[in-house]
Specification:
Layout lengths: L1 E3 L11 H19 L5 H7 L6 H21 L2 E14 L1 E7 L13 H14 L5 E7 L3 E8 L2 H8 L14 H11 L8 E7 L8 H10 L2 E7 L6 E2 L1 E4 L2 E5 L9 E2 L3 H11 L3 E3 L8 H9 L3 E13 L1 H17 L23
Parallel strand pairs: 3-4, 3-6, 6-7, 7-12
Antiparallel strand pairs: 1-2, 2-13, 4-5, 8-11, 9-10
Helix pairs in contact: 1-3, 3-10, 4-5, 6-7, 7-8
Amino acid sequence: MIKFAHPEYLQYLFALPLVALVLWTAWYLKRRSIRKYGERSTVLRMVPARSRVKFWLRGSILLLAFAALIVAYANPKVGTKFEEVTRSGIDLIVAVDVSSSMRAEDIQPNRISAAKKELQNLINNLKGDRIGIIVFSGEAYTQLPLTSDYNAALMLTDVITTGIAPRPGTAIGSAIDLARKSFEKEEGKYKAMVIITDGENHEDDPVSAAKEAADEGIVIHTIGMGSLEGAPIPVAENDRRQGFKRGPGGEMVLSRLDAETLREIARVTGGSFTQALSGRDNLATVFEQIESMEKKEFGTKQFTDFEDRFQYLLLLAIVLLIAEVLISETRNRFLSRFSLFAPNDEQEG
C-alpha cells in the first residue's frame, strides 16, 4: 500500500502543462527568429550539426524531473507490515438517495451535492467505526460493504450522483432492508444507519421497515434534504439544463421534503431527525449519538509500518537534471545515421 505524507503537494503536478507551454513558446519564438535570416530550410542546411529533436528531448527530461521532484516532495510511503489491529467502534451504514428529485436546488448547489458533502464530513469524523454505503432510488444497491478503509469510502463518494441506480423512484424501505442484511445478524446492538434523502417515498412502507430494523437493534438517523415548500426538479440533457420536470398536464412538478416520514423513521428506532440547511453543521446531533453508543471491538487487517520512498524519486530527479544539462543540442555522429536524428528533420513542425 502506498500513501503520501503530504498529498496536498501533488496539486503542483497541474503546473507541468504550464511548463510545457513555456517550452513550446520558447521553441516557437526560436523558430520564428530563424526566418529573419532567410528561408528556414536554407538556414537549417547551413547548420547541419544542430539538432532540433534534442530540444524536445531535453524538454521532456526536464518535465519528468519536475514531476519526480513534486512526487518526492509529497513523500510517498510504502506499507511494509500488514497485521490485524483491534479497533473499537460501531458498524455504520449510510444510505444516500440518488433519485431525480435530489437534483432540486432548494439546498445549494443542489440536494445531491449537499448530500455528498454530508457523507464526506461524516467519513472524515469517524474514529474506529466501520462504514458501508448504500445508494437507492426505486431500489437499493450496495455501493461499499462495511469497511474500515475510509480512503476507499471517500473515493466512492465522488461517483455518487443521480441516475446511478437504474430503477427510478424512491424506496427508503428497500435501503433499510438492504442495510439489515449487511449487518451481522447475531448482534443486537453496535449498529447504526444514516439515511440522507428528501423523504419522498413512492415504492414501499419505510416506517414498517424501520420497525423491523429496530427489533434487530439498528438505530436509524435521518437527514432531510430539501424544504417543506418544495422546489422544481431540473431536467438535464448532455449536462445542460433543458428546463424543469413537468406533470402530464404540463404543470411544474415540485419536490417537497417529507419531514414527517423521516421523523417517524428516526423515532421508532431511537435515532434523530435533522433537516439539512445550507451553511449549518447538520451532522452534529448524529455525531453525538454515534459517539455515545456502546462500542464493540473487532479486528481489521491494515498496514501498521510505512517507510519513506521519496529518496528514490529524488535520486531519479537528480539524474534526469544532470542528463538534461549534459545533452548537447548538436547532432551525435553515430545517432544521426538513424531516422530519428536524421538531417531531414528540418521539415519538423
